[in-house]
Amino acid sequence: MYTLIDLPSETLAEYLNLALRRHGLDSFVFNTGVDATGRNIFSITCLNPSELKQARHLIYSCRNFIIDIHPEAAILIREIRHQNTSLFVSALTSTPALFIACLALTAATLGYIFDF
Questions:
Q1: Which residues contact 29 (CB under 8 A, 6 or more apart)?
Q2: CB 73, CB 33: distance < 8 Å
Q3: Which of 86, 97, 100, 115 fits a 20 to 30 Å CA distance from 43?
């Protein structure tokens, strides 16, 4: 089984699971334990990697999925999307990434100037 997302609310997990099922995915909700604060964590899981890929597309990038679900769930999905986008941007603008980009640009410029 492949875990798609962990949520602190069982009702929200069940609702998102039903929304994913409306889009043709075979997913399930499981109680996976408790977090550090003592709250229960519920996971939405898929049995096949192809369904997991489609579910990730629906949750992380599909606009029609956001329109199809309840506004309270849509707010959570937008927050998850914003967190993932900010992680990606912070990785691209990190010091090692900028240093490697600077080295690559310097190598390309020197190669162009000296015809390497």
A1: 10, 13, 14, 17, 42, 43, 44, 45
A2: no
A3: 86
Task: With residue 44 as reference, give the H or E element that holds it.
Answer: strand 40-46
> Over the stretch 6-29, which tens digit does the pLDDT of each residue have?
888 899 999 999 999 999 899 999
**Nearest in space to 41 (alpha carbons), one of 13, 73, 8:** 8
CA 66/CA 75 separation, integer angstroms: 9
Count how many Cα atoms sit within 13 Å of the Cα of residue 64 in the half-sphere of its side chain: 6
Cα 109–chain centre separation: 36
Percent of the chain, pLDDT > 70?
99
Virtual torsion, Cα 65, 67, 72, 76, nearest 10 deg:
40
Residues making up the chain, counted from first to last: 116
Residue 13 and residue 4 in contact, taking contact as beta carbons nearer than 8 Å: no
Query: Rounded to 5, what percent of the chain is helix, strand, coil?
Result: 60, 20, 20
